[in-house]
Amino acid sequence: MIAAKPAQLQPRYDVVVVGAGPAGLAAALGARETGAERVLVIDREPEPGGILQQCIHPGFGLHHFGEELTGPEYAQRTIEQALEHDVDVLSGAYVLDVSPDRRLKVTSRDHGLAYLDAGAVVLAMGARERTRGAIRIPGERPSGVMTAGFAQKLVNLGGLLPGKRVAILGSGDIGLIMARRLVLEGVEVLGVFEIMPHANGLNRNIVQCLHDYDIPLHLSTTVVHIHGRERVDRVTVAPVDAAFKPRMAEAWDVPCDTLLVSIGLIPDNELAHRLGLRLDPVTTGPVVTSTMETSRDGVFACGNVVHIHDLVDYVSQESLLAGRGAGAFATGAAARPDNVRLTPGLNVRYCVPPTITTEREHTVYMRVTKPMAPCTLRLGDVYERPLRYVFPGEMLTLKVRPRFLEGFHGGSLRVDVVPRGEATPI
Amino acid sequence: MSDVRGKDEGDATVSHYLCIGCPLGCRLEVEELGGGNVEVRGQSCKKGEVFGKQEHLDPRRVVTTTVAVEGGIWPRLPVKTRGEVPKGAVIEVCRLLHGLNLEAPVAIGQVIAADVLGTGVDVVASRDLPRA
User: Fold this and answer.
1) Which domains does chain B have, with CATH numbers?
2) Higher pLDDT residue, A7 or B15?
């Protein structure tokens, strides 16, 4: 079901989307819904679908499609929806640059170097994994050190195993999923090492990926040295103190030929930098409005390029909105500017979008800085909602309805998450 | 966190589980009362009770893995069990699937192994895999 490639590229499109993962495909669909005629999605991989194609486990789609799907199933549905709506998908292509007047420089296997003009652009490039270099693990530089997501691609798409004896640094969900995946492929997984005193991944993954296969999870423990000349032959791990300093007297060696790192994602924002977009220092993604428009007119962004999501379902929903915004911009139906700023207050790291309007309904995504249970989510003094718990690893969503803001005439609202029963300190 | 499972030392009738219902991760105790009845403790909601009971009496899992394919755009096809199989059968299901070798094209939902290991559950393709 490889998407039919456009036989020839048009010099001008209403909307061009960069990235054919779940974000880009939903954005293209959103753009078509608003009446944009010519919509093109450009992607560097040989087929659309993005990272979902290698996420063969279930757990996707409960919110967006109302049933539990594997990654490839979610991808196929999303691709089919886009194709049914006459979206063009150009695979095996790379966007080298986007100019402020929305001219894209594209190189591809099938069309060589080309320049395309776009009525609106949507950036949906997703995220990259943090690597060994991001946390500067000391030691030698042998082969056999890779990110968990890259190992996932090798195993699930390429049919290749990364090694025979594997240690995993970081308890993010990709690392946990790969621990199980490798065991099922006959690889020995020696343990997962997590510097924090708590696991990062979902409890479901702790149980079904580690407990089920008796894979040890070492909390407050990290890799302090990588050994091996050509290939990894062991890693040294050590428990850490409250300040994350390794207690070297208690260090031990783990003989292995592979180290997978699962230590977080960062928005892939090279094009955002080239465009000079305003970036949010907390999310590191572009600052967006309530229609997902960046600081450049007609340039929109959605998905993991804006902030790291934990559910693809939310990516799809946010990206439909970005696509509708882009479609409206391209067809000359400009949105009303936002008039209320949401300011992260107590135990709120960020809100996306950071600004909203009083006349439409908005879904605001946010993350907390620390766990709290039970607690109350407050939006200024116009709305509050009790929550059983909040966790930094689980994104919070807040529907802001126009009626909340009927009597509100200010310019900004503070968003707080406070312990249940406590007043919000000023 | 890896020490929450298994039987209590000194009390052979109590088992421990980590609830997967939400991020709270309640530490569940499940006690056998005899006659197939159990009591779940430690949960903070109904989900915990349901999970503790199911996990103790009949743990089940969806299995996903890949199967070798000749002539496709990728050398592996992602597959899944269309429903849960007993947890104890997971490794055996994978072993069986890893012995197969398919020919592209394959269509999403196509049955790759019917009634796998007599569980009553089919293994199906998770995507279309066209010929290269």
Assistant:
1) 6-58 (no CATH), 64-125 (3.10.530.10)
2) B15
Task: Identify from A183, A204, A207 which residue to disrupt to test chain B contact, counting B C-beta atoms within 10 A and taking the largest count.
Answer: A207
CB A323 within 8 A of CB A15: yes
Q: pTM of the predicted model, to two decimals?
A: 0.94
Closest residue in B to A204 (Cα–Cα): B20
Confidence band (pLDDT; 50, 70, 90) for A251? very high
Cross-chain residue pair A56–B108, CB shorter than 8 Å = no
Question: ∠ CA(A390), CA(A413), CA(A346), 5° rounding?
Answer: 35
- Whether residue B18 and residue A75 make contact (CB cut-off 8 A), yes or no, is no
**Residue A397 exposure: Cα atoms within 13 Å on the Cβ side:** 14
Distance CA B2, CA A217 (A): 6
Nearest CA in chain A to B130: A1
CB contact under 8 A, A1 and B76: no
- Please, which residues have CB within 8 angstroms of residue B35's CB and are 6 or more apart in sequence? none
For residue B75, list chain A residues with Cβ-Cβ distance below 8 A: 158-159
Q: Do A388 and B108 touch (CB under 8 A)?
A: no
For A87-126, write each residue's pLDDT tens digit.
999 999 999 999 999 999 999 988 999 999 999 999 999 9
State which amino acid sits at residue B11: D
Q: Which amino acid is at A82?
A: A
For residues A362-370, average pLDDT? 96
